[in-house]
Amino acid sequence: MNPQPATTPHSHRLGVVSFLNARPLIEGLDCMHGVSLVYDVPARLAGLLDAGEVDAALVPVIDIVRPHRRWQIISDACIGCDGETLTVRIFSRVPPDEIRRLHVDGDSHTSVALASVIWQEMFGQQLMIAPLDSTGGDWTNVEAVLLIGDKVVNHRLTDFDIETDLGGAWKSLTGLPFVFAAWVCGQGYDAGELPRQLSEARDRGVAAAAEIAASAGPRLGWPVELATRYLTHRLKFKITDRHREAMALFLDMVQQQHVIPEAQEFVFA
């Protein structure tokens, strides 16, 4: 289903990731005339765009390439990394190469696919993926858990001795950065000035990242020092040529490994 046009030619409803990592991308947008923000976890934003409840959204990259969608990337603003992320991590009781069954956080789609391709490429192991809520709250026999977002910091898993950061693992495997989410809209949607507005918001947010960490971090359970390092050093917010190369490689891998065997190419506006 294609999203319906916004109520006026210059109004846009934006689906936004509710975690700290998206705050630099939306700096000033909440005060902008004609722009409204709808917050949700990454895994649900694609559905909001499908349903026409938002006009554009910051969507997990794995959802952009699903074959039933006709979306385009409309900004070089993104949630990405070039090495460790701090907030996309697998916690395990066994060494990474011994993990066979991975219980996954339902808030993420891209990170689940990323874990699958990394384990296949690095260890020749096809992970068995199970939803985290299937444990019924009993994690006694869970060997590995994938968590993303703020909960990685404010809900530490003390019973799991080993941590694997998927951004760091991807960088070790490929030498490339990674893009977790990008701004998209339907290919028929008139975005007008929105692409420029999104890039300008990102530039404002990157410049004010330390201030954002200090104000928003504690409300989301982050120590200020850690939030500052996260937003100013760990995350990357611009799709560069190297990020595009990484996106293309990731797409090849998910196709080859049949994560999404009929995935379509990324379309950039």
Structure explained in plain terms:
This protein has 269 residues and is of the alpha/beta class. It folds into two domains: 12-80 and 177-249, D-Maltodextrin-Binding Protein, domain 2 (3-Layer(aba) Sandwich), CATH 3.40.190; 88-174, Periplasmic binding protein-like II (D-Maltodextrin-Binding Protein, domain 2). Helices cover 33% and strands 23% of the residues. It has a six-stranded mixed beta sheet with strand order 2-1-3-10-4-11. The protein has a five-stranded mixed beta sheet with strand order 7-6-8-5-9. Strand 6 (101-104), helix 3 (110-123) and strand 7 (128-131) form a beta-alpha-beta unit. The relative contact order is 0.22. Mean pLDDT is 92; it is low at 1-9.
Quick overview of this protein structure:
By secondary structure, this protein is an alpha/beta fold. The chain has helices spanning 42-50, 61-64, 110-123, 151-154, 166-174, 194-207, 209-216, 224-234, 241-256, and strands at residues 12-17, 35-40, 56-60, 71-81, 88-92, 101-104, 128-131, 144-148, 162-165, 178-186, 235-238.
